[in-house]
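Bench notes, afternoon.
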Amino acid sequence: MTKKEPVILVTNDDGITAPGIRALIEAVKSLGRIVVVAPDSPQSGKGHAITIGVPLRLNEVDIFEGIEAWQCSGTPVDCVKLARDKILHGKPDICVSGINHGANHSINVIYSGTMSAAMEAAIEGIPSVGFSYLEYSYEADFSLPKEIAHKVTKKMLESDLPAGSLFNVNIPVVSKKEFKGLRMSRQADAKWVEEFDERRDPHGKKYYWLTGEFKNRDSGDDTDVWALENNYASIVPVQFDLTNYSLKKKLAEDWKDL
């Protein structure tokens, strides 16, 4: 009996015309039937936002030769929801998101539209992964990220993963000769120390630009930040259950008089 071809949902947050999503399609198209549903404009930093109160638009586009592709007026999470309900009428075998232009390591996973799209699929029980490349230029060389995306996606399809398995993969900007491989990691205790640059427009009214400096407070050699600084690609298994189990256990005793 012929094995059923897996359905691979491809999405992102940089928009359907971004070079990163084209690179991701090229990386995984030999692994199954590709269906693309992605935002019609950049949605970076949208996190897990969904569209409420305004209608969503979904239009089929012919921009990837031989690939079914749709652009959506909403957020990355909207794209995954609409793909499941209106395009695929069911669950794909896997969801791959990216390849994002820029890092999504450490605390960035909370803000990332790339990872939130993958997380939405994982919430539906779909094995999912987000890929991010620490190169912001749209002229970036995606040859190494494509190899990694193919390898990880293939491994996920071949593995008996629990429902809703979710991975965050970040890729350093290094030559193939300098690249040391994939490293299973944990999320670093690192964050942006933010400030708002206050300016005035020609009418004298104030406006603000968000600025900041990235601070790594984690000295561990098992983190995603360490891996990337040492020429590894990091792969972090992620969960959407935000329960602090150790604190829950402690407070069950300390606060039992509530």
